[in-house]
Design goal:
By secondary structure, this protein is of the alpha/beta class. Helix content is about 40%, strand content about 20%. It has two domains: about 35-150 and about 275-300, Response regulator (Rossmann fold, 3-Layer(aba) Sandwich); about 155-270 and about 305-335, Rossmann fold, CATH 3.40.50. The strands form two sheets. It has a seven-stranded mixed sheet with strand order 7-6-8-9-10-12-13, sandwiched between helices. The chain has a six-stranded parallel sheet with strand order 2-1-3-4-5-11, sandwiched between helices. Helix 2 packs across helix 10 and helix 5 (about 155-165) runs parallel beside helix 6 (about 185-200). It is globular and about 80 Å long.
């Protein structure tokens, strides 16, 4: 082998070696995260947000984090107990994690209250009203928090429109509501404005405890509104077995907000944002904070577009005819 061949061989080898080295160093999945794993303490309101937690994990994995190696997620679930939620929030702050995540309005509010002095970084998700968290500027939230907002309250008029398109004969809509809901007044206002525009009368059925459900449903069956809507509330969402069988027997069409379980729970229609997707969206913000960005300088984001699901099989069983234009609007139809 002459000298030119040797030089050429060495040159080719160096080029290939350099390319391989660049690939392994530049490809995110091979980036080595130095130091101990980051601890993320997560507070939810109830089992309702478990799909959001799974979304956070999935989102972090897509960003090349290895769960339990790069990040440790410590889940706190008060199972709908508001007093326990506040206690868990205080315990989380005392543990001084690298980052706190609140997945619901009540969970995030509890963390904000407990975090007043510690000022630990906080990312919220699945929050219905950012103003209730003390944020006035979504582009520059300030302080130590930012996150993802879901407008479950503001879309109430849209849910009414969908019910109205089911049948023009719908003149009254019953709404199941917890008077202790953190957005209680906003729900009354948004729903009232939507009903007024559509010429619909609202009938409120307040449920402050699980024991109230049977009484509220008995009253609802007696008054028999033309349709029923739920509100985003753990107490109502966690007890569909006490609600949907009664609506089915009474042949009252219903609209829920919970994409993950609403149809399976027995509601006729669902209009809302996937909590799993909210979790994934929150993960992208979590990533920024873990990499050193100031939460207060990260703009608050709004969740993706709501989707409509319809249980046509249930409609057929109840003798309810769903117009073809409404079926065509649906993102998913269960037949």
């Amino acid at each position: 082998m002459n000298i030119k061949s040797i030089v050429f061989t060495i040159f080719v080898f160096l080029v290939i070696a350099g390319a391989l080295l660049y690939y392994f160093l530049a490809t995110p999945s091979f980036v080595v995260k130095e130091g101990p794993p980051k601890v993320i303490a997560v507070l939810i309101a109830s089992d309702l947000q478990l799909s959001s937690v799974e979304g956070v994990k999935a989102g972090l994995k897509e960003l090349n984090y290895q769960i339990d190696k790069d990040v440790i997620i410590k889940l706190n679930n008060p199972k709908g107990d508001r007093e326990f939620t506040a206690e868990m929030a205080r315990q989380m702050v005392a543990s001084k994690p690298d980052l706190m995540v609140g997945l619901s309005t009540s969970a995030s509010s509890a963390l904000i209250e407990a975090n007043k002095d510690a000022k630990l970084p906080l990312v919220f998700g699945d929050v219905g009203n950012f103003q209730q968290l003390g944020i006035t500027d979504i582009k520059h939230p300030g302080g130590v928090m930012t996150g993802v907002v879901v407008d479950n309250v503001g879309v109430a008029p849209k849910r009414m429109e969908i019910l109205k398109s089911l049948s023009p004969k719908i003149k009254t809509i019953g709404i199941l509501l917890n008077p202790k809901h953190v957005s209680y007044q906003d729900i009354l206002k948004s729903s009232g404005e939507g009903a007024e525009k559509l010429g619909i009368k609202l009938i409120w059925y307040e449920i402050a405890a699980k024991e109230d459900i049977a009484k509220a449903m008995a009253k609802l069956v007696k008054e028999k509104p033309d349709a029923v809507m739920t509100t985003s509330e753990a107490l109502i969402s966690n007890n569909p077995s006490l609600i949907t069988p009664i609506l089915r027997t009474a042949k009252i069409p219903s609209m829920d907000f919970n994409v993950e379980v609403g149809i399976q729970a027995g509601y006729l229609m669902v209009y809302g944002v996937s909590r799993f997707e909210i979790g994934k969206q929150s993960a992208r913000i979590i990533d920024k904070v873990l990499k050193g960005e100031d939460p207060g300088s990260i703009p608050v984001e709004f969740a993706s577009t709501p989707s409509l699901e319809i249980n046509k099989a249930l409609a057929d069983e109840m003798g309810i005819e769903i117009p073809d234009p409404l079926l065509l609007q649906a993102n998913k139809v269960y037949r």
